Fold:
Amino acid sequence: MTDFNAKYSMTIAGREAGAKGTLPVFNPATGKIIAQVPDADELQLNEAVAAARTAFATWRLAPLAERAAGLNRIGEIIELNAPALMSLLTQEQGKPRAGAEWEIMGSAIWCREIAKQSLVEEVVEDSTERRVVTRFSPLGVVGGIIPWNFPILLAIWKIAPALMTGNCIIVKPSPFTPLCTLKLGELCRDAVPPGVFSVITGGDELGQWMTAHNGIDKIAFTGSTETGKHVMRSAAGTLKRLTLELGGNDPAIVLPDVDAKSIAPQLFWAAFQNSAQFCNSTKRLYVHESVYDEVLGELVAFAKTVKVGDGAQPDTQLGPIQNLPQYNKVLEYIDDCRRNGHRFALGGDVDPRATGWFVPVTLIDNPPEDSRIVTEEPFGPILPLLKWRDEDDVIARANDTPYGLGASVWGKDLTAVERIGSQLDAGTVWLNEIHQYSPHQAFGGHKQSGFGCENSLHGLMEYTNWHTITLKKKAQAL
Ligand code: NAD
Structure:
């Protein structure tokens, strides 16, 4: 176990690294500064890239078993330090204990499971004439750029496949949630050779420098669609490989045959888990008109039982909004609903004198389909419920969005559930469940929710080049 004191340093070339400047990190439950972290400049980025390029020369040749052992060590380190990492995650991100445990223990599981994966080379031809083989070779140096909602798990989703395929990776956490990632870098300095896994921290411009850097071959990015477009533009200069996991406006469709009382808790958590700061939160809840009033009533009743507060308190179920700009953004959606006369079935009243960035669970009753709360991604605990009558119409409404990350369908009639689900244009469609992820299950967005995927062998492949070798066997005049 490492002492989790208040000192944070970057990890470059397997060693501690600081910076001239620092950035403050806040506890969102109190609004108070809890740490200062290095604010790296371009020189430090260059050092990290140079160390990664040096390390790549040998790491790419390391046998698969050695790379798997490195990744397993990272998983073990996470597990050994889980209690301290969980409490640090709650402090910097705001999420309550259960969510922190899910994320930290999930990260360890991901390391172990991805360590079992490998890409088998394809023998295309093996005749007396010729042998043709397509292999998967590593890309080089990967830049991992991470958001603030699941800082550790989403970093591991990039570190694990990068390392297994023989790449080196430099991870840049969000400036809002850098602490656990810096600690992870520090704890893992001896887990893999120096330069294979580095962590650097700084503001948004550090991310921008990474996307333009000549020495970085791929950007694995999770964040908003708007930033994803900047990343793509900036990466075009060097034709970097990209995986973009972006925003979502996930619909959930509720059929007429549900039991309102028993489904309400599931629908609630589908929307409000992690205080709705979740790419795959249900962000539009389409309920059949015949059960609409009942479902709304049960959701309101259930929501009133959920405890919102400081994630460090053991009985808290929903924490604060993670940062001040996001808090102000969520308040803007509440104001917009009020200005436009939408009916609040619950919530909407924010206490301006409260310490910390808390927004109450807010339910908006059947706002117009073209309202901002329906068409945009608020990324906070405010959910519109919408009525539907006709199946084709609700499918069209659910798909009428530039996003395509996730969707869900809920009902007892499994034929109808599957029929509707198969027509929803999203990377993951959950039927009668939600938020089931696996290291072996491809995850990614359609449309402006991004491209490429994470997890599974498809995700692993994103960290490789096709490398086709053809050998003419018959000797001839050369
Ligand atoms: P963001 O886009 O503001 O920031 C994400 C990361 O990009 C941060 O590390 C930030 O410092 C960096 N960044 C900012 N500007 C940059 C630039 N010009 N070039 C390079 N990097 C830059 O996103 P956020 O507010 O941290 O996260 C919330 C968003 O992330 C939501 O839209 C959410 O839906 C999305 N998200 C998507 C997934 C997914 O898997 N699809 C998962 C989680 C979150």
Remarks:
- The pocket of nicotinamide-adenine-dinucleotide is lined by residues 145-149, 172, 174-175, 204, 207-208, 211, 222-224, 227, 230-231, 245-248, 279, 377, 379, 405, 445, 449-450 (CB under 6 Å).
- The first strand starts at residue 10 and ends at 12.
- The longest helix spans residues 42-59.
- DSSP finds 15 helices and 22 strands in the chain.
